[in-house]
Write a sequence for this structure.
């Protein structure tokens, strides 16, 4: 077992039996479930909308080589600049180069999972560039020195008491401060950052090919401030985020809002088409879009599993997953946690290091059921397991065990070779620690079903 897999098992065991952790997560996800049920009820035909979104995303992946150059051409026509980055290191170097050319020293960021993916904050800090997260949840976890816990709600694992203690330690606010007071304090601290930052960095929810624009979705207005005050705006976006036309937002924005937070539409939806034009009063003087691969083409090459690239980062599958709700987001040790992270991370970051994530599932299918773009997530998990076996990444004892199991299951004589007593001995010897540590092991009957059945037939039992 790899180091990451061992740590995953160890941390999972601790988190699953941490009552405070489970109380906070179940409380927050319970509120989410209520809001989402209300939001989804506004769709006249939700299933039809999801099928349409799935079809559009399928067409995007089939034509990515055409749509991305189309976006680039249209964006450059408006004065924007496009940079293609093969991996995290290249993306970070390009961002640093832009910052250094501008002699900039400070950066303000809005919420972006892609910047988390490339560890941008850490990279910039190592190069003496001050970086501040402007999303409240991201700002809180940055103060704690943690990674985001959830794709949509970065501080989901914290209670209001936890945040009040943090602000008391950092800024001297009352230990019993209310959420409203804490929010006002964060607003007071962040407002100045917008006006003094040299560079604004965002992600992008969608890249619109036919207009050469990026679409941003948020609830706090911080992304608008991040893209308005600084002279330079850098947007870093995964290549899979492209959609063909502006009209497609009519479908994707409501799907993202309802599945992400339960809203009919998020509070702020912004479309940015380049740097400030001569007749405009707001916006940056320069705007860059960095198109990031970072393993995405590896997944694109997997015909059966490229569905993972359809994801619009709503977080619905995380909130539905019984495993995630017990072990939480940090346990995965990945940027993208939960079911969607389990299917894309092995392809983007290495099957050998992250194959264990595809086994962290009950295969209940709830993730596939709630996905707004109908990604067959639980099937993808099985396909990842298949790939791990094909690549010879299973341990020797595991492979031997499955071969023995297959041999026994394929032949009745082999299955009945040992009586129930010896089968129970085998269970207790080999599975007590892995399977029976927190649950009772099943008790195998003394006689196999075939022997019991033969006995009943011999006694003339019918039906």
């Amino acid at each position: 077992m790899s180091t990451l897999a061992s740590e995953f098992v160890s941390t999972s065991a601790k988190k699953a039996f941490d009552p405070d952790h489970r109380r906070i997560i179940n409380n927050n996800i319970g509120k989410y479930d209520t809001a989402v049920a209300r939001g989804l009820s506004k769709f006249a035909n939700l299933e039809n909308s999801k099928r349409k979104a799935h079809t559009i995303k399928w067409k995007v992946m089939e034509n990515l080589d055409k749509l991305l150059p189309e976006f680039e051409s249209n964006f450059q026509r408006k004065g924007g600049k496009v940079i293609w980055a093969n991996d995290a290191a290249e993306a970070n170097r390009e961002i640093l180069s832009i910052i250094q050319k501008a002699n900039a020293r400070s950066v303000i960021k809005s919420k972006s999972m892609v910047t988390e993916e490339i560890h941008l904050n850490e990279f910039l800090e190592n190069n003496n560039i001050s970086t501040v997260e402007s999303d409240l949840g991201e700002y809180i976890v940055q103060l704690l020195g943690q990674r985001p816990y959830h794709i949509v709600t970065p501080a989901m694992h914290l209670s209001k008491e936890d945040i009040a203690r943090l602000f008391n330690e950092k800024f001297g606010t009352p230990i019993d401060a209310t959420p409203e007071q804490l929010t006002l304090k964060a607003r007071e601290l962040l407002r100045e950052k917008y006006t003094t930052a040299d560079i604004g960095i965002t992600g992008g929810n969608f890249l619109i090919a036919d207009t050469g624009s990026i679409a941003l979705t948020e609830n706090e207005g911080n992304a608008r401030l991040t893209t308005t005050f600084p002279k330079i705006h850098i947007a870093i976006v995964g290549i899979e985020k492209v959609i063909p036309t502006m009209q497609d937002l009519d479908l994707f924005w409501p799907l993202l809002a309802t599945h992400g937070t339960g809203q009919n539409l998020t509070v702020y939806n912004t479309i940015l088409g380049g740097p400030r034009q001569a007749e405009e009063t707001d916006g940056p003087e320069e705007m860059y879009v960095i198109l990031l691969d970072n393993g995405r083409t590896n997944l694109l090459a997997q015909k059966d599993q490229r569905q993972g690239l359809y994801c619009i980062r709503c977080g619905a599958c995380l909130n539905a997953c019984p495993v995630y709700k017990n072990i939480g987001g940090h346990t995965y040790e990945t940027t993208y946690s939960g079911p969607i992270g389990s299917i894309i991370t092995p392809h983007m970051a290495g099957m050998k290091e992250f194959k264990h994530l595809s086994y962290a599932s009950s295969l209940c299918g709830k993730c596939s059921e709630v996905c707004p773009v109908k990604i067959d997530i639980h099937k993808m998990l099985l396909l990842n397991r298949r790939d791990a076996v094909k690549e010879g990444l299973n341990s020797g004892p595991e492979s031997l065990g499955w071969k023995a199991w297959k041999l026994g299951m394929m032949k009745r004589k082999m299955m009945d070779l040992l009586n129930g007593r010896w089968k129970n001995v085998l269970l207790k010897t080999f599975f007590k620690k892995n399977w029976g540590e927190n649950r009772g092991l099943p008790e195998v009957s003394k006689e196999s079903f075939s022997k019991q059945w033969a006995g009943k037939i011999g006694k003339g039992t019918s039906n």
User: Anything to note?
Assistant: The first strand starts at residue 81 and ends at 85.
